[in-house]
Amino acid sequence: MVVSVILRRVLGSSWLPMIAALLGILLILADRNVSAGDLAKFVAFLALTVALPGVFTWRLLLAHLHAGEADSPTWLEDLSLGTIFGFGVQLPVYLLGVWINIPLLFLVLPVVVIVLSLATAFGRRTWTLPTRQIDVRVSWSLAAIMLYGVAWLGRYIWPLHPLTIPAYRTPRVDETFHEALISELVNRFPPQIPYLLGTPLNYHWFAHAQMAADHWATGLASPEMLTELMPSALLALTVLGLGAVALRLTSRSLAAVVAPGLLVAGGFCLMGPHYDAGAITEPYLSWRFVSSPSQAYGFMMALPAIMLILEVLRPDRKPHRLTWVTLALALLALSGSKATFMPIFVCGGIGLVLVQLLLTHRFDKRAVGLAGLLVAAAVFAQLVILGGSTGALALDPFRTVQTALAKQHIPVSHGTELAMTVTLLIGWLLYGAGVFGLLRNKLWRDPRTVFMVICIPAGVSVAFLFFRSGLSQLWFQRSVAELVVLLSAWGLTQLVPSPVPQRLGLYLAGLAAGAGLAAYLVSAYAERGNGVVIKATEAEVVATALAPFLVVAVYFLGRLVLGAAHRPRPGPVMLLAVLLGLGLTHVYSLAYDTVSQRSEHHLPPPKPQFAPGGVDAATWIADHSGRYDIVATNAHCRLPDTALCDNRNFWVSAYTQRRVVIEGWGYTTITNAGYSDTARNQNIPNPYPERLKINDAAFENPSPTTVNRLVNTYGVKFLFVDKQYPADVPGMKALKPLLHKKFQNHNYVVFKVAPN
Q: What HEC string does 685-740 produce?
């Protein structure tokens, strides 16, 4: 009897699914050759230095929300959003530590929390606040969504980023860019662009700083954190946090599952289950999830801010002053996470003020206060983090549509432009179809609805009205995905009773699953006849644009026929179940590909950025130099001996962990400002010709004059010679005692400059 009671309690606990999901994620990572020791260190880092101080601070600041047990936060809310908030708590302490050369200073945070929890009354009270449980079915569903997302990364994305690079391979160029930024924040603060000396880091670098802190705490290498460990953590916390926000917004367990499920399942298209959606159409999961850590990190860091914005706007409760304080801190933590979120939120805040003024003929104090706070946070992000950079966005209406067609090799015409425009809108917004449920009970007037409804077109319109080389305008469209699914889940809950009857729930789930299966079968059939499965044909684009409208037409036709026959007609929730289910294509694809062990089409391996021995030479400098020592190199282009220089050369600064006088100059504000239609961003010429001349003279024409000019002008301590590029190595060796050869292999030589 006792055993059965204990077993029943264990199986009924909402913690068991979370433990099972964690173990499942760890097994997937272990299958990717991540060692048990590295996994243990990473989990310990998150638990002790992020989650513990974050959850404590979150509960302490928002203790007033726990006043009433009926609507007090759940453990899911406090644990997920508190952990996410913990990244923001840790970051300033870490940066202060790097600045004063005590990078492990942030380890004091868990110690302070433990002391406060044991020695003070308010510390103990923080952990004993009334906290509601969640439905165990919600917990199992969220666990399944997390496992699906990590399994999807393991199947389709991680093979593109192997942890062990063969001798004939090098990392992809974006990986070395991110590793260069991580190495900068491992060693120095305030940060600069490490591969172009003296250039401010006008970039959303908070994710890189977190991985730098992780490196100090665990000793884990950047590639492991960048490609596998951190993406897994970000995905899991985004799923849990989004579920918590949806639950608090709607007070319905259904929404807590639907919102993250819609986000992770992906957008709808009939372009084939293996179509390369990463370039244009995906809302969340894609190969960009790993190649753009700032976007994945921004998705996660936006959730506490979204929850608190919605809490401030609740029409049935006056926000506590500590809610405002916590919101301000959450916005600061978001400000440098991803540059696209703050402008979207500002549009929502200002738009809400104007709508409230139109409806009530007065300024709503809460809306005005929120708009003011959002503007202040956006100004901080723009001026302090981004240095006033605009990202080189240029007004160019519908250039995105034309580029999308060009990527599929589809001729541009009025018809194809219209079809692609509709296809993009459907891919970005169809999973928000549930929003129509908010027409009930006048929820369309709720300030929370108004705020989100304004934010969404603000983000999507940027993608259609502006353009930047590299398709950076699309990050705005992707950044509204969480708001889309929140509105969709909220609207869906207005169309079904609470609790959802089991029979109705199974029926709706069956409709959604059937719609997804039908979409997958149609998509797979179309893909079989397509010579290049990762590209779309014109017919597939048109089919994607028309399919949802055909579903709606069939629905209304069915209602007419059944009404004429005096038979029960299907309600709108049936239509929404089908429309939302269309986005399940990739779920079926993952299942089929895994069971059939289908070999995947992968991007071609990158061209080598460096010759064998490059990492050894660079890490020698990292091991034998001070953190502020300056390096000069003759390697400036991604590839040697090319007609056009690819300016995305970052690997020297990444592996030396030192600032370089001029290595590459890609992905910088000053380079982007030189963009024109006649050149791709990576081929924009060097913005500092005089610096390049001084730098290269020391390598190509070494003499006391040329070397001393370089050394004295830029404070250079090491010369890193890549023999693939022009260099007079014998001449440099002859410059003793000015230059001392410290390292040499077949392809690289390192010289140290004699101290003055």
A: CCCCHHHHHHHHHHHHCCCHHHHHHHHHHHCEEEEEEECCCCCCHHHHHCCCCCEE
Residue 698 contacts residue 630 (beta carbons within 8 Å): no
Find all residues with CB under 8 Å of 249, minimum gap 6, and list them.
Answer: 255, 310, 448, 486, 490
DSSP 659: E
Cα–Cα dist 485/495, whole Å: 16
> Whose structure tokens read 């209406």?
397
Instruction: Check pLDDT > 50 for residue 168.
Output: no
Which residue type occupies 635?
Answer: A
Rounded Cα distance between 389 and 369, Å, is 26
> What are 251-294's pLDDT values in tens digits?
999 999 999 999 998 788 888 787 776 667 777 888 788 888 99
CA distance 673 to 691: 18
Return d(Cα 327, Cα 307) in angstroms, integer. Answer: 9
322 with 62: CB under 8 angstroms? yes
pLDDT attached to residue 54: 97
What DSSP string describes 266-310?
A: -----S-TT--TTTTT-SS-STHHHH-HHHHHHHHHHHHHHHHHH
Q: Count the alpha carbons within 13 Å of 693 in the hemisphere toward its beta carbon.
A: 4
Q: How distant is the alpha carbon of residue 684 from its chain centre?
A: 27
Alpha-helical segments (H) within 466-537: 474-478, 481-493, 502-528
User: Binning pLDDT at 50, 70 and 90, where does residue 139 land?
Assistant: very high
Amino acid identity for residue 466 in this structure:
F
Hey, which bits of 158-277 come out as E strands?
Answer: 192-193, 199-200
Torsion of CA 664, 668, 670, 675, to 10 degrees: 90
**Two tokens, residue 388:** 């006033």
Query: What tokens were used for 155?
Result: 């199947």
Which residues have C-beta within 8 Å of that of residue 401, sequence separation ≥ 6? 417, 420, 421, 424, 464
CB-CB contact of 692 with 633 (8 Å): no
| Coil, strand or helix at 253 | helix
Backbone angles phi, psi at 424, to 5 degrees: -65, -45
DSSP one-letter string for 380-443: HIIIIISTT--TT-EE-TTHHHHHHHHHTTPPP-HHHHHHHHHHHHHHHHGGGGGGGGGGGGGG
Per the model's pLDDT, the better-predicted residue between 385 and 709 turns out to be 709
CA distance 523 to 440: 35
Cα 78 from Cα 130, distance rounded (Å): 11
CA-based nearest residue to 335, from 386, 288, 391? 386
Please state the length of the chain. 756
Grade residue 633 by pLDDT with cuts at 50, 70 and 90.
Answer: very high
Q: Which tokens belong to 559?
A: 């209602």
DSSP β-ladder status, 394-395 and 466-467: antiparallel
> Residue 166 burial by CB count (10 A; 0-12/13-18/19+): exposed, middle or buried?
exposed
Place of tokens 């506490």: 304
Cα–Cα distance between 393 and 469 in angstroms, integer?
A: 9
- Distance between CA 585 and CA 285 in Å, rounded? 13
The pTM of the full predicted model, rounded to 2 decimals, is 0.94
Cα(333)–Cα(91) distance, integer angstroms: 8
Measured distance CA(336)–CA(298) in Å, rounded: 9
